Amino acid sequence: MLIVSAIQALYIFYMFNLFKTKYSFNHPFESLFVKNFNFLKHPYNSGNYENKICKLGNIYAYFLFLWLIFRNFISIRFKLYIKNINSIIFNLTFLVSLLMNFNAFLYFLPIYILEKKYSNY
Q: Which stretches of the chain score pLDDT less than 50?
């Protein structure tokens, strides 16, 4: 399971921090976050070749990276806690990315589906 988690962690890190594109997918509610909070600003319909994730998303990718690796080294007797924490992290990430940045949501969706369908956590 560590190999799968490592691949997921690298994917999240790459997509949220390094991936650049000129295509942007947005919904109307994103403009509320983009305009009002500097830390949440991300390119909104810019058409420029750039990363489409805000600073908060960049930092959060580090957290997800660490969690995906770290969860494999926690004792088996804490399995129930890990399962609950994992569920909270992935469901909140799913919801928040859907509301705040549709690009982040699309990048995160494959990981979310894998976690829901195949995860032992």
A: none
In the chain, what are the domain boundaries? 2-118
Q: Indicate the angle between helix axes 2-13 and 55-70, nearest 10 degrees.
A: 170
Express each pLDDT in 8-20 by its tens digit: 999 999 999 999 9
Beta bridge partners of 50: 21
Give Cα 12 to chain centroid, integer Å.
Answer: 6
Neighbours of 42 (CB within 10 A): 23
Contact 69, 5 (CB under 8 A): yes
At 105 the pLDDT is: 94
3-state secondary structure of 50: strand
The values of phi and psi at residue 89, to 5°, are -60, -50
Per-residue confidence (pLDDT) for residue 23, from 0 to 100: 86
What's the pTM value of the predicted model, to 2 decimals? 0.86
Q: Give yes or no for a contact between 89 and 96, defined as CB atoms under 8 angstroms apart.
A: no
Burial code of 88-106, b = ≥16 C-beta within 10 A, e = fewer? ebbeebbebbbebbbbbbe
